[in-house]
Amino acid sequence: MDKTGETKVFVVDKNVEDFQSCSQIVDAARLIQAGEVVAFPTETVYGLGANALSDEAVEKIYKAKGRPGDNPLIVHIGEMAQLSMVAREVPGPAQQLIEAFWPGPLTLVLPKTDQVASLVTAGLDTVGVRMPDNPVALALIRAAGVPIAAPSANRSGRPSPTTAEHVRVDLEGRIAAILDGGSTGVGVESTVLDLTVQPPMILRPGGVTREQLQEVIGEVAVDPAFEAGKETPRSPGMKYTHYAPQGEMWLVAGEEERVRAKMAAMLEQARQSGLSTGVLGTAESVRFWREHPSVDVALACGSRHDLHSVARELYGCLRQFDDLGIQYIVAEAFPRTGMGMAVMNRLEKAAGGRFLSV
Ligand code: AMP
Ligand code: MG
Prior knowledge:
By secondary structure, the protein is an alpha/beta fold. Helices cover 32% and strands 18% of the residues. The chain has 2 domains: 8-228, Alpha-Beta Complex (DHBP synthase), CATH 3.90.870.10; 248-357, 3-Layer(aba) Sandwich (Rossmann fold), CATH 3.40.50. It has 12 helices and 16 strands. The strands form 2 sheets. Strands 1-8-2-3-7-4-6-5-9-10-11 form an 11-stranded mixed β-sheet, with helices on both faces. Strands 14-13-15-12-16 form a 5-stranded parallel β-sheet, with helices on both faces. Strand 13, helix 10 (286-290) and strand 14 (297-300) form a beta-alpha-beta unit. The radius of gyration is 20 Å and the shape is globular. It starts with 7 loop residues before the first strand and ends with a strand. Bound molecules: adenosine monophosphate and magnesium ion. Adenosine monophosphate (AMP) binds at residues 71-74, 109, 121, 124, 126-128, 151-152, 189, 192, 203-204, 235-238.
């Protein structure tokens, strides 16, 4: 698509006492009310927002991102009063989860109202809704006075943006404004939980873990599609290649010494074929890889002892490989428990199924 015009950048003054009266946020909210698209920070990644009650406004999101029309958007609310505008029914377990995790990185799939623009839900009779845990996002939605539909603010297929600069690189000239509120905290998207089935099912792993959900509502299923890697996922968006860097990426799992030996052999071969090479490691392994003769760039993506730090830095690292023009990337795998479930899901998508167990 051609560029559509100038993109304003509103930098939020972090020292402001009350975000609600912050002029940059008020200006961004006016653009939302006028049916425009504005990128804004949440606690997970940057979102690309428009009035969730207007098909005309929401259509601009799909256009700016180049997002397929069958992939529904998440609706963000700024106060509990807005929930009934989008969800027709809120069953008991949903209430319990809301009390435990909102505002926070948990999207609940619920029966939708007629008010929600049909483009938001891609024609489904359910809607994904959450309240983000970010003061700038909450102030923006409250000031706009309408729920805001927002996917991640990247061009379709690119890693999600965790800074305003990532958004600018992908979408400058294609959206009305970027509200810059600094880096996001969680770094991977929200957990998407379907509450219209019994037991509730995780459609996308994310910032709230399966273990945390089970502590509140008991049994929680996981869409078999991303455990087996074969079936068609129930969440329309999960079938698309996401988060991918431009280079060819491989993911290697297993015992540490064997993983290192396998990765070293792969990198040596890639180097011999004339490719530039990168390693996605952690604080624990990065020195080893930086000193390795077959490695051009080794990045430390958080610490193996804190998978939240890995989640926070993952997309930034993938983008860095692109910026450096790395053609062949090998990544170390992580355990799939807790936050590791979301991290491994994103890594597998980034690697497009190139997974080795040694
Ligand atoms: P993104 O907007 O890029 O964070 O992606 C949103 C994710 O939530 C995608 O995987 C969507 O397919 C999923 N999603 C949103 N709404 C629904 C819904 N009503 N039913 C199932 N999945 C949904
Ligand atoms: Mg996305």
